[in-house]
Design goal:
heterodimer; A: 342 residues; two-stranded antiparallel ribbon; two-stranded antiparallel sheet; globular; B: alpha/beta; D-Maltodextrin-Binding Protein, domain 2; 2 domains; 18 helices
């Protein structure tokens, strides 16, 4: 394709990406560098059904003037990034100085919201992603070997977890694992401990979230691998059969190498998705046990007093986190691309 | 054919007369859009406003109202012309200057409003209150009779009663509490902390003062109570706690007046639970004489970023929704402790009235209280799960609050 043709072909996409992806990111980065003006507080007298009290209120006219002069607010530089709610440099340094062992240091670290959220998010990401790839692959191979008439039905059922809205799916599971729910009762019965509650225990809650994560994302891996299976060269498979390869050997030496690029693709998408885990935490009401960067953004925005700068900072940190997570895969893809080009 | 015509005519006249009856002379000429919480009394107010004719009245009543009301009023023109708020949530709207003073509209259309319904801040009317609310004791009279104890007056009594109920094998987890991590848990801390005689801030400043002996005693009492709760208590909000009570699993709980009145009216509640249902005032704690509860009002505001016609229509419709005549319906009168002219307390109101008589502290209307509430909700769950000490949890709350307050320019 000529450069000129390519340019015009690509221009609408580039414009849309600039408008809907690049500009919002710039605006979020700007927001994270500025904080609201110092509140001008005045003493006020508030009256209502319970009598009058002396209180404090924000002086609106003075604040409005400040806002008119500098609409962006105060420039805060990276101070929000380093405060306790985010990277907590001062607190981490303090913990490093005062703790006498690595274990104590990590315990201190896990008391800081950002590092605790990272603890859960990374566990979730690195447990869910490989397991859902394995599960998705197993379902794909199983469905592919079914009789033609059964395939359609099974594909539909295998896709159900992805069709169900994540919030609804997690809410249904949440009710089932309630200490009075079907699964909750069953687990208490099996463990022979009537007071056992999934929702009251952090490790069990993490396991429930991870199981949910695998359940809801496996269909995505399944669809990709199932499509890939249709392109496996039949003559290679047949020659393997003639050579006496078992079914496992056929999968191990023919199918898996053929699907390897797809594994990279699924891993890429799922690492990105799982790092931004949010719906199960909300659906399972697991805020007491597990937090993620996305759930911080939600709570910053939905508190009685919104913290826009804090939410913006967490968003930027999420973008950086995703970039770091994907860098090994991206570097490898780039190398493969370069390797294949000459 | 004739019969058909008669039928048609009667239907038409019936429709006409209901429309007329529903109108009650409330006519508006501009858009009204309401956002607010979803408990029964607010549903009544929302429905009252939609009776008005002449302009479109829409309402969005949801438990998530606090997450959307500010954003919905910041635009120009604002999506919502009125937000139904309480003394906590009005602060966020005031801080961002999205509601307008109502003095001119009160003078023009507010002759039915009583002076104590008007919420004035620095001499300007910013909201019109229609009901009072407080958390107080709800209990099962039949269960307490069985164990031979009086309804608890203090949280220490509540613990004793809970122990006895469990020991006698009547209920495994007899205490109910809206201890869901987040807003609810923080609110239970506020109640108990004020009951212990605490103050959230150093007088006249935004500096926190919760990491002290009263804070520790507060957390220890909450921990002791949670031992008698459903093990999932950190996921139970008011709705889930009420469901536990309705199912007969709970005998003692601290519940909102606005929800207590209609608590056992739901479908499927056993007669035992219905007949044993009883309400009492809030409890005290730690030997203090201050009730471990907070007083609340609920009222409505008018958005700043709307046209004068819309503001006026909103004021008319909302005033219509809380006119004294709505109390003629017995069901409505029971839903809340109305601040409306002509209200006489029903049996369901004793809890909130007792709270008012005990000089319970109103929830603090301070610009930075919301940040403190959020910090409490986020940081106390660790202590409740036994993962850290009370002192550590309180230090974490203060640190989280300080970071947020610095960002918002309060410190």
């Amino acid at each position: 394709m000529k450069h000129r043709t390519f340019f015009w072909f690509f221009a609408p996409t580039a414009a849309a990406m600039l408008l809907f992806i690049a500009f919002p990111i710039v605006s979020v980065v700007m927001q994270s560098l500025f904080v609201p003006h110092e509140a001008v507080l005045i003493e006020s007298e508030n009256c209502g059904p319970f009598g009058c009290t002396k209180s404090t209120t924000v002086d609106q006219s003075a604040t409005e003037q400040l806002r008119a002069e500098k609409p962006l607010g105060r420039f805060a530089g990276l101070s929000i990034y380093t405060d306790r709610g985010h990277l907590a440099f001062a607190e981490v340094a303090e913990a490093w100085r005062t703790s006498d062992s690595i274990g104590a240091f990590f315990k201190e670290l896990s008391d800081l919201p950002f590092y605790r959220a990272m603890g859960f998010t990374l566990t979730y990401t690195f447990v869910c992603t490989p397991l859902l790839i394995i599960l998705g692959f197993a379902i794909a191979v199983a469905v592919n070997s079914l009789h033609r008439r059964l395939k359609g039905l099974m594909i539909f059922f295998s896709l159900l977890p992805m069709i169900v809205t994540p919030l609804i799916g997690s809410l249904i599971l949440f009710w089932m694992i309630d200490s009075r729910g079907v699964l909750g009762q069953l687990i208490a019965y099996l463990a022979d401990d009537p007071s056992l509650s999934l929702k009251a225990s952090t490790p069990l809650m993490w396991m429930s979230l991870i199981v949910y994560g695998i359940w809801s994302s496996a269909p995505f891996a399944f669809v990709v691998f199932y499509a890939g299976l249709q392109t496996v060269p039949q003559d290679t498979l047949e020659s393997a059969q003639i050579d006496g390869a078992t079914r496992w050997q056929q999968i191990r030496f023919v199918v898996i190498p053929h699907l390897a690029p797809l594994v990279t693709f699924v891993a890429l998408i799922q690492l990105m998705d799982n790092f931004r885990v949010l719906e199960p935490i909300i659906g399972f009401q697991a805020e007491a046990h597990a937090q993620s960067l996305s759930s911080f953004i939600i709570s910053d925005l939905s508190g009685e007093t919104q913290q826009l700068s804090s939410a913006a900072t967490t968003s930027v940190l999420t973008i950086i986190g995703v970039a770091i997570l994907l860098s090994p895969v991206l570097v490898r893809t780039w190398r493969d691309f370069r390797g294949g080009a000459h | 054919m004739f019969l058909k015509k008669i039928a048609m005519a009667s239907v038409v006249s019936l429709l006409g007369s209901t429309a007329f009856a529903a109108g009650h002379g409330c006519s508006i000429d501009a858009r009204v859009s309401i956002v607010g919480n979803e408990f029964p009394a607010i549903q009544t107010v929302g429905a009252g406003a939609t009776e008005c004719t002449g302009g479109e009245v829409s309402k969005n009543l949801t438990a998530d109202h606090q997450k959307i009301n500010l954003a919905g009023m910041q635009g120009n023109p604002a999506e919502y012309t009125t937000a139904i708020v309480a003394n906590s949530s009005i602060v966020a709207l005031m801080n961002d200057d999205v509601i307008r003073p109502l003095d001119d509209l009160v003078a023009k259309h507010g002759k039915d409003l009583k002076q104590n319904q008007l919420i004035t801040i620095n001499g300007k009317v910013m909201a019109v209150a229609f009901m009072a609310n407080a958390q107080h004791l709800v209990y099962r009279a039949d269960v307490l009779e069985k164990i031979g104890m009086e309804p608890p007056k203090t949280y220490e009594d509540m613990l004793a009663a809970a122990k006895k109920i469990r020991d006698m094998g009547i209920m495994e987890n007899p205490v109910g509490g809206a201890y869901k991590a987040g807003w609810n848990l923080a609110q239970e801390f506020n109640n108990m902390f004020l009951g212990m005689g605490g103050q959230h801030f150093e007088a006249g400043t935004a500096n926190p003062s919760i990491n002290n002996e009263m804070g520790v005693k507060t957390l220890n009492m909450m921990k002791a109570l949670s031992e008698y709760m459903n093990p999932d208590f950190l996921t139970h909000d008011s709705n889930a706690t009420n469901a536990e009570y309705r199912a007969g699993n709970v005998a003692l709980m601290n519940m909102w007046g606005s929800r207590a009145a209609t608590l056992v009216d739901a479908e499927g509640v056993s007669d035992e639970v219905k007949n044993g249902f009883a309400i009492a005032g809030p409890m005290t704690v730690g030997g203090g004489d201050q009730a471990a509860s907070t007083l609340w009002w609920d009222g409505w505001t008018v958005a700043k970023n709307v046209s004068d016609a819309e503001a006026e229509a909103t004021f008319i419709a909302m005033t219509h929704a809380i006119r004294p005549a709505i109390l003629e319906d017995g069901e409505v009168a029971k839903q809340a402790v109305w601040l409306i002219d002509g209200y006489s307390p029903t049996d369901a109101a004793v809890g909130v009235f007792a709270a008012a008589q005990m000089n319970t502290t109103p929830y603090p209307m301070l610009p930075y209280m919301g940040l403190m509430h959020t910090a409490l909700g986020a940081e106390l769950a660790d202590f409740m799960q036994g993962k850290e000490s009370a002192e550590q949890a309180l230090a974490d709350v203060e640190a989280a609050y300080m970071a947020a307050a610095k960002e918002k320019g309060f410190l």
